[in-house]
Amino acid sequence: xxxxxxxMKTAQTPTNIAVIKYWGKRDETLILPVNxxxxxxxxxxxLCTTTTVAVSPAFQQDRMWLNGKExxxxxxxxxxxxxxxxxxxxxxxxxxxxxxIEKKDWEKLHLHIASYNNFPTAAGLASSAAGFACLVxxxxxxxxxxxxxxxxxxxxxxxxxxxxxxxxxGFVKWIMGKEEDGSDxxxxxxxxxxxxxxxxxxxxxxxxxxxxxxxxxxxxxxVETSLLLQHRAKEVVxxxxxxxxxxxxxxxxxxFAKLTCADSNQFHAVCLDTSPPIFxxxxxxxRIISHVEKxxxxxxxxxxxxxxxxxxxxxxxxxxxxAAAQLLQRLLFSFPPKxxxxxDSYIIxxxxxxxxxxxxxxxxxxxxxxxPENGSAQKYPGDVNYFICTRPGKGPILISNENLALLDPExxxxx
Length: 415
Fold this sequence. Notes:
alpha+beta; 19 strands; 33% helix; 6-stranded mixed beta sheet
């Protein structure tokens, strides 16, 4: 067996958005949370991370490239994931290429990793969740690891807490666990993406800049200073998690919306209750909440749920396509694109919803009439960067087409 072979695997992993929020760790190193959380996985066709992992005796050290730029792997979180997955590596044989890797060889072989997000990194769209889930999933495939997705999720968790929830599609629960070593802090799938396929999701990307307070430091400060966080973790979330599981299983949108909005608002209240206070939402975020609340009230039952992670972007979950089309009309009336932006680059993802909303071009947007419930015809052009239209989606997949790999099969370097 020559020394110049390269063995590769490429995977694609979705991002997820929590409807019951994870905020606060009881163990910083192992990334163990102070409460359970529940998320919805977003369709990877619109939001995902693609990662190629390669191994070769020719590689001198572990190296990683994110979105084309080389980044350091020296951080504890990467090291934890790499160590845990290497521990579980097994024998790998590729008869076609004449490659055989013994279990013991993995300790001295180096890896190349290339990762690409098809959405903004670190802007509050859970890019680290998709990233670490993808890294662990791809490495597990490369190293012939036999652990199942739930067990792998406990490894991905050590890279980024919410990453454990990206190893499944549909609705996912991260069980906080009780053990000190974190062995029982892992993700399980509640229902798959087909269970509630009426749902349609619109994300208003208010800012694609990196956030001022990272989630990691924000959580630490909340745990140390917020009394509301203690109350939330002990009294509120345990009950809310049970109610949310029930709402999801029975597809009860009214309960789902009420719980989702309340939990998002309480998470941001915890941020305000932190010393010094953390502000993730901005005026545009607050306006979107107000628009949704007024519309839901005027309809008599909720049409849309809103939730915000650690950033100003609004994730709006509509009860069905009809509600999503009406939502989009309302959003485009109040938050039209700047005059030099075309509709095609302003609405990305699943554009078929534009037809449902009767919007073919900017002329149709300009002709929209003000929503009756709003009481104001004020417009805020340019306050939203763009909208992503998507839906609940599936979990990680392997990509067998080598043309889609991010590393060159000959050299193991980025293409």
